Amino acid sequence: MPKVGIRDVARLACVSTGTVSRVLNDHPSVTDELRARVRGIIEELDYLPDPSARSMRSKVSRLIGIVIPDLTNPFFSELVQSAEQAAADHGYNIIVMTSFDDASKEADRIGQLTSRKVDGIILVPSNDFHTIKPPKGLPIIVVDRLMPRYSGIAADHRNGVRLGVEHLLKLGHRRIGFISGPKDSVPANDRLKGYLGAMEQIKGEGQTDGPSLIAEAGFDYESGRVAGNYLLARARNERPTAIFASSDQQAIGCMRAAHDLGIPVPAALSIMGFDGIPLSNMTTPRLTTVKQPIQRIAAVAVAILLNKQPVPDLDQPILLACEISDGETTSAPQPD
């Protein structure tokens, strides 16, 4: 069968080829009725535009690059998937690259994406504080790990943790342990500040001093297990009755530590995580967590790159609210 072209679509839709092009490019001048009619013909004919020809004509590649530190981290995987869906809704595709949390590799990935003529880049920066040198004219939006002097969007980590700790306080917990993230992580530091701020509410009640119940760890499962062992390896009247972990993976590792020590969750220990990754719904018992609005973060980042939403002012990032996802790992504390 001969290849279907844009003229075939225009002829059957009774419009010009320019109108078809505007529909394909989501031009705001096209009415919803006309857009639906042309899209119907496109689907009927199974018409596939030539991306290289469209790029040459419009000087737009319809490609968005996304650079993340680690593809194995479930949070970043969901971010990529959400960004891909958001981009597809606007007729764009995603190119994913991994920096392995290394600034030099990150710079290389940005250079590669620039050579691919992407229309913009979503960047989760590496943790070693540095300066991004974006190519002139190429928009970059920083996500999750916010940086000074760059436009960015992230979950409100600090208030998200505060929300979780306040949930535990309302249940009656006072000895609340905290598994923090790496010291060189911006989100981890924000989450730690959220914990310390929330714990100020019980200052002076004669409870164990907050900082003594803090364990620093990586965001992964094994680090959470080790940190959980550290916090729980003390007398019953001194160990925390609840532990808030800075990631769901940490929290799941902490659940394993409690299991190995014979401490039932939540009967003798409440555990909360942070992120709201799909894995949090697969644990037994099901993990209570503070859910980041990952899909919303990705959608807003894509919208900003495509000029469908204003670019946030420098040093005034967009912070999106988190919410508690109720599970089965928190309850009122037992008496000592």
Detailed description of the structure:
This protein has 336 residues and is of the alpha/beta class. Helices cover 40% and strands 15% of the residues. The strands form two sheets. It has a six-stranded parallel beta sheet with strand order 2-1-3-4-5-11, sandwiched between helices. A six-stranded mixed beta sheet has the order 7-6-8-9-10-12, sandwiched between helices. The termini are far apart. The model is unreliable at 52-58 (pLDDT under 50).
Concise overview:
With 336 residues, the chain is an alpha/beta fold.
Radius of gyration: 24 Å
Determine the mean pLDDT.
89
Structural class comes to alpha/beta
The description of the largest β-sheet is: 6 strands, parallel
Biggest sheet: strand arrangement: 2-1-3-4-5-11
| Helix-strand topology string | HHHHEHEHEEEHEHEHEHEEHEE
Kindly estimate the percentage of residues that lie in beta strands according to DSSP: 15-25%
Q: What portion of residues is helical?
A: 25-40%
Number of strands: 12
Low-confidence stretches: 52-58
Shape: elongated
Distance between the terminal alpha carbons, to the nearest Å?
A: 79 Å
The DSSP helix count reads: 11
